Amino acid sequence: MTIRFSTGLRNALAQGYGFGGIMNRGYMKIWTGSQPATPDAVETGTLCGTITLSSGTLTKETRATGTIALSGTLSGSITVVTAGTVNIIPDLAGAGVPYNTSLIQTASDLADAINRNGYYSASNSGTATVTISPRPGTGTLHNSYVVAVTATGMTATPGNMSAGGVAPVNALILASPSAGVVSKPSAAVWSMSGLGTYTAGWFRYYGSNDPEGATSTVLYPRMDGTCGVGSGDAQLSSLAVSSGSPHTIDVFSFTVPAA
User: Fold this and answer.
1) Per-block mean pLDDT, blocks of 10 residues, the chain (259 long)
2) Are 90 and 116 in contact (CB under 8 A)?
3) Cα separation, 159 vs 78, whole angstroms
4) How far apart are CA 202 and CA 29, in angstroms?
5) Measured between alpha carbons, how far apart are the two ends of the chain, in Å?
6) What is the C-alpha separation between 71 and 153, in angstroms, rounded?
7) Cα angle 234, 174, 244; round to 5
8) What pTM does this model have?
9) By the 8 A CB rule, do 173 and 24 touch?
10) CB crowding 35-67: b at 16 or more within 10 Å, else e
11) Burial class of residue 1 in the structure, from the number of CB atoms within 10 Å of its CB (0-12 exposed, 13-18 middle, 19+ buried)
């Protein structure tokens, strides 16, 4: 077994998302040869095909985004941030995110506070502006949500969620977990149409809005693993791929160990 997690998937598992939630509405690509050393690296080999729901044409998700820009007085704190009607930093219980050293550092602290709660993901990319996005797989649900901020001292200017969120189509959904195992739903058909005459070697399971290729960002969860028939991390109907040939992933699961 050669399952490997990207930095983004490891960080998301460590901070507040479950595996099923992180990979909700993702997709897979099957490649020839051997997998790269890390899922953060560019894909290697030749693309055999893309695994979607019943081989349907994939529309990747576009997640709506909102912003919080910090400026002004170098003091105070941010006590409440709401998207729609939900406070997305509830664990702070009114204590808020205090000003810390600089507006850029405070924006980083605010992004961390948002990420801890699992409602939204956030980043500040070395600036005094925090960009927020909803959970993966939510599509258009958060389009045009109003972002509101309560702050003292410094000024926190919110930007509402964009209207540009796009729902994924024919993406993959995992079943509810049982005894720590989350799997492909038994009734779901995860399949692809072959792109040429190849031998399947490995797969990359992408999150719903992955740009693909090499990336060092923490925002893109991925899983790499081996392909096999009756064995392997993703078990295919056949490793021999030809142009237009149908191929299914018959077995796929992820287990959270008991110890």
Assistant:
1) 81 77 92 93 96 96 95 94 91 81 96 87 92 89 96 96 94 90 92 96 93 75 92 89 93 81
2) no
3) 15
4) 9
5) 18
6) 10
7) 50
8) 0.86
9) yes
10) bbeebbbebebeebbbbbbebeebbbbbbbbbb
11) exposed
